[in-house]
Amino acid sequence: MPLFRRRRDDDVEDADLEVGELDGDGEPAATPGRPHGPWDVDDVADDVQRLDLGALQVPVPEGCEVRVDVQDEQVVAATLVDGRSAMQIHAFAAPRREGIWDDVRAEIADSLNGSGGAAEDADGPFGRELRARIPVPPEAQPQPQPGQTQPARFIGVDGPRWFLRALVTGAAATDPQQAATLEQAFRDVVVVRGGEAMAPRDLLPLRLPREALQQMGQQPDQPEDQPEPAKPTLEMLERGPEITETR
C-alpha cells in the first residue's frame, strides 16, 4: 500500500522561475541544470502541494503514490509510483562551488558495466543522464534467471550545496510519454539543505511525515537521549525495505 496517494481531484499550476542563488560569501552557488527546478527551498515560490519529508519536499501527482525507503531504521529515499513506473529520489550534501553529477554518473556507469549491467550517457530533460540496464534481484523475478536486467534511467541535478539523484524504472525508463508525470514531479521537488556542515555525498536527513508517525503510534520527534544512526553516504546505499501506509 502507498504511504500517500493523491486523488485525481486537485489541479495546481506550476510557476517557472529563474534561479539566482548566492552562497554565504556573496558568490554565485552551483546551480547548473535547474532553471525550472528541482528547487532549493530559498528559490521556490509556487502553490504546489508537497509531502514534507525533512530535507525533501515531494509533490504527489494525481493518481500517484509516495513510498519511503528505509535502511537501518533511517529514511533514505522517497519513491514515486505512477502505474507501471517508479522514480526513487535521494538527496545528498555537495560542495559549495562545484557539482558532483559528472563524477557520480561516471562511477555509476563503471559499476554497472562491470557487474552485468550496462550504461551510457545521453541527453535528457535535466541535462546529461544515464540510460542503463540494471540487474534484477532474484527475489524480484517470478522465475529467477541469472543475468536478467531491466531498463532504467539515472537523473542527476546539482544544486547549491546539494545533489539530487533519481532512478527511474518501469515504463518511464523507455517511454517519454510515460515519463512525463514523474519528470514534472522531479522538477517540483524542493530540497531543504539546512545549515549543518556535512561531508559531500552524505545523505541529507529525511523523516516520515508527522501524520504517518501519528498513524503508526510514534512520536514525531526523536528522544534526545537516543543516538542517531550512522548517516549513509552515496557509496553505501542499497535498496532497503519500504514503509507503506494509506492516507
Amount of beta strand = 25-35%
Under CATH, the topology of the domain at 31-43 and 53-136 and 147-206 can be stated as: Protein Transport Mog1p, Chain A
Question: What is the average of the pLDDT values?
Answer: 79
Rounded to the nearest angstrom, the radius of gyration is: 18 Å
Main beta-sheet annotation = 9 strands, antiparallel
CATH class of the domain at 31-43 and 53-136 and 147-206: Alpha Beta
Share of residues in helices: 10-25%
Q: Would you tell me the structural class of the helices and strands?
A: alpha+beta
Can you characterise this structure?
This protein is an alpha+beta fold and 247 residues long. Helix content is 13%, strand content 31%. It is built from 3 helices and 13 strands. The strands form 2 sheets. Strands 1, 5, 6, 7, 8, 9, 10, 11 and 13 form a 9-stranded antiparallel sheet that branches. A 4-stranded mixed sheet has the order 2-12-4-3. The longest helix is centred in the middle third of the chain and has 13 residues. It starts with a strand and ends with a strand. The C terminus is likely disordered.
Q: Quick recap of the structure?
A:
With 247 residues, the protein is an alpha+beta fold.
